[in-house]
Amino acid sequence: MSEEFEPKIIAFLCNWCSYAGADLAGTSRMQYPPNVRIIRLMCSGGLDPLYVFRALLGGCDGVLIGGCHPGDCHYTNGNYKARRRIAVLKSILRELGMGEDRVWLRWISASEGNRFAKTIHEIVADIKKKGPNTLAQSWAV
Amino acid sequence: MNRGEIAVAIIKVKDNNPVGAIQELLRSMLEQGLVSAVLVPQEIPSHKIVVQTLVRDPAKLSGVNPLAPVFGVNSARIIAKMCVDQMRNTSVGPAMAQQPEQDQQTQAEHAKAENHAPEQKDEQASKKGQDTPGDEQVSTVREDSQGETQSAGDQQPAAAEGQPGVAPIAVVLRPCEIRAMVELVKLQQVSMDPFLVIGIDCWGTYSVQDYVAKVSQGSQDSSVTADFLTQVTAGNLPEELRTACRICQHPAPTHADLTIQLIGDDINQQIHFQAQSEKGKELFAALGLEVTPESKGREKAVAKLKEDKKQLAEQDQLDFLDMVSSLCINCHNCRAVCPICYCKQCVFEGDVFKYPMEKYLSWSDKKGILPMPPDKLLFHLTRMSHVATSCVACGQCEAACPSGIPLGRVYHKISTAAQAALDYEAGRSLDEELPLTIFREDELSVVEN
């Protein structure tokens, strides 16, 4: 069995920008790898780090958090707050040696279907290089 | 707090007994009615251990020993309990911020808040103001409420400042307890107003078990406290100090109204007593203390102590993930004792973590095996991400862990990193806003990858 490693990616996308961007990528028939599972949020600022940890511990190989571009948040500033929360999350992952480089924060607007598709291409290529998320390999974690 | 107006007095120590001098000081405050009660660690009658006590009778201060090197609970937690009613009656609070009448009431405050948060774009706020969810208002109300809590809460029973006749409650606290208290003020769990904070220098503490063992081993004519003080004033940090204390960078209290200063003094002869706030200075004057120059050796001695402890911190390496998965028994004691974990209901007690049987089975199906209970590591990581920005690294989580997971060290590590990333330090300032309620437009680009 020498199947190529196909990473699993969870994408938390905000309803107003990134999710619409992903939708546009779909309706415009842009090609991007099928490795991503999308979870729609009302705002990137509403994402509890809990769910990112759960994804990583549950065996997913990468997490994308997508929000509106700075200044464009539907709720004024949720994306700025998301950025701070992700900074905390990443510093925890870094200090514990858990792979902060498996978490991506990207700003993708509703009109940027191509940016969404490009982001997924990038992430999948990057994770294929890194290999599977070792954190979830042992059943004991 | 005006740092420029610091008043210092020397308290003479009799019979080589600094604890006695502190007892006298507290007794005179209580006797003269300058404070209505004292929250202070006190030896239980058998002298086996020291516990926090709330004392109103000056005759009941004979067991007072805030210098005992033991730290059973973080008193900020006790103080938060004492403030439950008061915080409930306070009309400014995150839970109520979304109600329209509240918005009207605090409109002026909002306007003010905007002014001292220049990083929030005004035109942006007005452009999308109608869509703004509660979240944003919470942050602005929060930031203002520190100063306004008292005026907003009409029914507060014992707000000392500005209400003559009601003497404050003196609380004798270690530096980490005060820093936790500062964070709890910002988290709307504690009001500083009813309290007169007396901070006390701290070299570190033993675990409760170690302290009790030392007491039972000790002879009649020596005390664990005296032995400890002899050792630390000579510059030797005992090996058995709690790990959180061994690496602590805050031996000297900040944000206290008054501080009892020991580091750098010959504490068998004298200790310094310093007033750092208006409240503290009033009491200073009422006690008729003679103002003297600041302690000379203190600054240097504090710096040396910090340096010694810093070196200990840098030696640390540990495999936390492995420790949690092998040792954690999912008791959540670390959460129960944490001064910062204040939620009424933890997310881990809620429906998110109640699973149907099929869920367990499907998880187990993935690898054919599932550790039970699951979510042990997830609990710790989530708790870390929730408290990291306000963690004061007091190490109570480690003390409470029945499996001996070195949580104190881990939390010290991750909270230092998280707070550095957001240019924040828990307990540093009452005026700095909680880092997750504010933002700057141009920051953290390193996070966007």
Rg of chain B (CA only) = 23 Å
**First-residue to last-residue Cα separation of chain B:** 41 Å
β content of chain B, as a range?
A: 5-15%
Could you give the distance between the termini of chain A?
26 Å
User: Biggest sheet of chain B, strands in spatial order?
Assistant: 1-7-6-5-4-2-3
The assigned CATH architecture of chain A is: 3-Layer(aba) Sandwich
- How would you state the average pLDDT of chain A, rounded? 92
- Name the structural class of chain A: alpha/beta
CATH C-level of chain A: Alpha Beta
SSE sequence of chain B, one letter per element:
EHEEHHHHHHEHEHHHEEHHHHHHHH
Any overview of this molecule?
The complex is a heterodimer of chains A (141) and B (449). By secondary structure, chain A is of the alpha/beta class. Chain A has a single domain, classed as Rossmann fold (3-Layer(aba) Sandwich), CATH 3.40.50. Chain A is built from four helices and four strands; from the N terminus they run E-H-E-H-E-H-E-H. Chain A has a four-stranded parallel beta sheet with strand order 2-1-3-4, with helices on both faces. In chain A, helix 1 crosses helix 4. The longest helix of chain A is centred in the middle third of the chain and has 18 residues. Chain B has 449 residues and is α/β, with parallel strands linked by helices. Chain B contains 19 helices and seven strands. A seven-stranded mixed beta sheet of chain B has the order 1-7-6-5-4-2-3. Chain B is globular, with a radius of gyration of 23 Å. Chains A and B meet through helix 2, helix 3 and strand 4 of A and helix 14, helix 17 and helix 19 of B.
